[in-house]
Sequence to fold (432 residues):
Amino acid sequence: MTINRPTWVSEADSLVVDWRMKAFGPAQQNQTIRGLAESGIRVSDLATPVLTLDAAAVEHNIRVMGGFTAAHGVDLAPHGKTTMAPSLWRRQLDAGAWAITVATPWQLRVAHTAGIKRIIHAGAMLSESDLVDVAHRRSLDPELQVYVWADSAQSATLMADAYPNTAPRLQILVEGGAPGARTGARSAAQCLAAAHIVANASTLQLCGVTAWEGSLRGAHDPGGRALVAAFCDGIAEFYEAIAEDGLLSGTEDPVISAGGSSFFDVVIDRWLPRLSEAPVSPRIVLRSGCYLTHDDGLYQRFSPLSEGPGPRLSPALNLWAQVVSKPEPGLAILNAGRRDAPYDSTLPTPQRILGRDEASSSLALTGANITQLNDQHAYLELDESSDVQLGEIIRCGISHPCTAFDKWAVIPIVDDASSADPRLVGAVRTIF
Fold:
């Protein structure tokens, strides 16, 4: 059987299914992913619960985000912590991403081991052993670039002292923040102080400024976009102050970076016209990660590419769960819970019944809502007239991809999750 297979699933083709992979049942044990895909198995053949990745939606989202960044002349360093899937990172890089962002030294080691050559470490790195490891990797791999953040003179000093002077200098982005937010210097004076330490350290190289607007208090409240815009203006001022002090004069490719998955359009609106005219014009780098799979909750509400006249992102993650009990009218219990799906934002959203046509499915799920998750069960509230049956499998949308991928070591990839019974085309491995 000939099937359309995304190139980025090929590394999992030889993976042999075993008892540790909860996405697969006894019928798939001891078979390779390629063999299963070529046999034509479908979601109805898999164990439940199961999280699947829609290949067509992923490719669509890569094209949409690539078109957006290209149209604005900015770069993308997607946050790798979203998926922790090296095959997906490489697909993003192949599509034009400038770098991969990570959140911890361990994630950095995963990325470099997977062959990633430009990595942003979104935070300070203060452990001497981690700094020595990065120095060792950079000494052995001249192509490796690692950008680490410093948000104070003290953190810059600690890194300058601990990073070995025998290795290529560690690339540093000074992080700006705001009162009540997460990390980041709270003032231009603090940013400048950190920048001076970096610029004068023999082991460090000042490369620009960075920030994360998503940690601002009230960013997702009414008026939050104006708050984010003001914050971005402040970070631009930090960059300008550092440049005006001459601290970037020796930097070949200065960087200014922000842009999570909710407000990257605001970042571009505030920085692009202003900094393109700066005496030392920086490379603008967004770090959005959740665009790759989007969702049916948090980012459906807040992503700049979830509405509007242009191309929109499509949800690519689905949770499939079986009705295992109907203990009373208006209530069905599904066999998926907090071990299987995100619950830190919106709970999973029931969308369709596997194997039914769209009309029948919609009628049965009219008014349906998941109201609660236990560790392994979901409470599906139904209209009392619903004909949802014991044993049927419900497709659900999820909210917040970052807390979906971490629950699955192997995620089946399907051709089209909107079809009556999607076909397996591969799998992706995660590393958590």
